[in-house]
Specification:
It contains 6 helices and 7 strands. It has about 240 residues and is α+β, with helices and mostly antiparallel strands. The longest helix is centred in the middle third of the chain and has 34 residues.
């Protein structure tokens, strides 16, 4: 569905080039229908710009739209149009991926040199804020934790502190990085974890909150760990935030 919307958006993109602006300056808004048409184009173009998609020729976009609307012969073979768009979007996604992974690589390399930061073979990094003295979670335990999750830019995407009460989660349903990290802790401990994207959600985004290939930073306090009750309903554990 998102791809369909994006393709439609391209038809209304506003070119940054002066020649296109001069061409479209001839179009005037003089009726309610004109207002809706202009507002639609402006709104969709803004969405394109937010996604970083700006290098398009508005005149050719307009021609493509007109040809399709009038059922005229397209300037490129109709059989190739879908492939052209798919390849273009694939290149954009690949560029975003590479940029994100490069940012992650640079951060983790720098962070590994910070005082107190330990890097494991898996790539997970952590820093001990306070050691605990209680039990350590197993792969199938329930854990009660306080946590704050941030992205590399410092923005908080989730926090149990906002709810003013700790979260109770099943180890089985956490990301690989957090499972590995929590198994290093004892009850009462507080660690900071730096989770590479491959140990988090990888190529999958989590709505608008977590983009694909996000590096996750968690400040976690392990309050308690207990074996998962045999009758625990798995449906209650589906709406996890990390």
């Amino acid at each position: 569905m998102k791809r369909v919307i994006l393709v439609v958006c391209m038809l209304f993109a506003i070119s940054p080039f002066a020649s296109a602006q001069k061409y479209f300056a001839k179009a005037k808004v003089s009726s309610s229908t004109d207002s809706v048409s202009y507002a639609l184009g402006y709104y969709l173009a803004q969405n394109l710009i937010k996604q970083g998609l700006t290098e398009y020729d508005a005149t050719l976009i307009g021609k493509g739209f007109a040809d399709a609307k009038d059922n005229a012969s397209p300037s490129i073979p109709a059989s190739e149009i879908q492939d052209v768009l798919e390849n273009h979007f694939a290149q954009i996604e690949e560029a975003k991926k590479n940029a994100q992974l490069q940012k992650e690589k640079e951060f983790l390399e720098k962070n590994a040199k910070e005082e107190g930061v330990i890097t494991l073979e898996s790539g997970l990094q952590y820093k001990v804020i306070k050691e605990g003295t209680g039990k350590t979670p197993s792969d199938t335990d329930m854990v009660k934790i306080h946590y704050e999750g941030k992205l590399l830019d410092g923005s908080v995407f989730d926090s149990s502190f906002d709810n003013e009460e700790p979260a109770e989660l099943s180890m089985e349903y956490l990301t690989p990085g957090l499972i590995e990290g929590l198994k290093l802790m004892k009850e009462g401990a507080e660690y900071i974890f730096y989770v590479p994207s491959e140990l988090g959600y990888g190529e999958y985004s989590q709505g608008d909150v977590l983009p694909a290939y996000s590096t996750l930073i968690f400040d976690i306090e392990l309050i308690s760990t207990e074996p998962k009750p045999a009758a625990e309903s798995e449906t209650e554990l589906e709406n996890l935030n990390f």
